Amino acid sequence: MIYVLGSANADLVFRVPAVPLAGQTLLASDYCVLPGGKGLNQAVAAARLGSTVEFVGAVGSDANGHMLLGVMAANKVGTLHLTRVTGVPTGCAGIFVGDDGENAIAAAPGANSFASASAIPTGAFVLTQLEVPLVEVTQAAGAASTFILNPAPAKPIPDSLIARCTVITPNESEAASLTGIDLNDDASIELAAQDLLSRGAQHVIITLGARGVYWAHPGGSEYFDAPQVEVVDTTGAGDAFNGALAHHLHAATSMREAIPLAVQIASISTTHVGAIDPSPL
Length: 281
Prior knowledge:
Layout: E1 2-5, E2 9-15, E3 30-36, H1 38-48, E4 53-60, H2 63-74, E5 77-85, E6 91-97, E7 103-108, E8 124-128, H3 134-143, E9 144-149, H4 159-162, E10 167-168, H5 172-179, H6 186-198, E11 203-207, E12 213-217, E13 220-224, H7 237-250, H8 255-269
Parallel strand pairs: 1-4, 1-8, 2-6, 4-5, 8-9, 9-10, 10-11
Antiparallel strand pairs: 2-3, 6-7, 11-12, 12-13
Helix pairs in contact: 1-7, 5-6, 7-8
């Protein structure tokens, strides 16, 4: 069983020529409302690959919450520990997707602020992010025997939490935020990874977008390239990677084998609009 502690959002996605600048108004060519939230995206990715997944989070008692419950049911994501909060809207994100596939996102947590890790049992396999309260992430880390932390969105976290990480998976900007190191070349990427290892993480995986990922551990490090695909929307690519990584590691796949499999899933996820493809992975 994989316990995914995280957010569930209704994503309002706008198709624009380019991500708007400050003060700029653009005419969108299209828009849609899609299921999202880092926790839900990751849970669906792992479940579609065959893992038994229990989602630990919260949604509102509104229409968006009802829609997300339907998505979880359709993708066989367990909701035994999902809370429905009355009087609070389901989390929501506004996403601008440019013609080049790049995106900008603003998210309102809503009911995600009520996610609780209290139901996660001792010894659990846990995947989580930082779109739910840090106190709940910390509680989940204390219960877990395997703890995968996707430290997104970037925010300060204590070394005591990093030290609980079996795997920590920042992207370049999140790694820079955590370490104070500007990741602008291979040397700085390695330096940032070594900093996180020195603070107690067992494995550091820095996701590099189209370049793939960098993996560092006490025994060494290496890069894994991403396959070339026609990018439509990069929204949720990191979530697809994390969900796929959790699936393969939970299935006792070695890290060296699990990473390229997860990179492949992340690349596939960029070939459609939205974080969750309406068709199976």
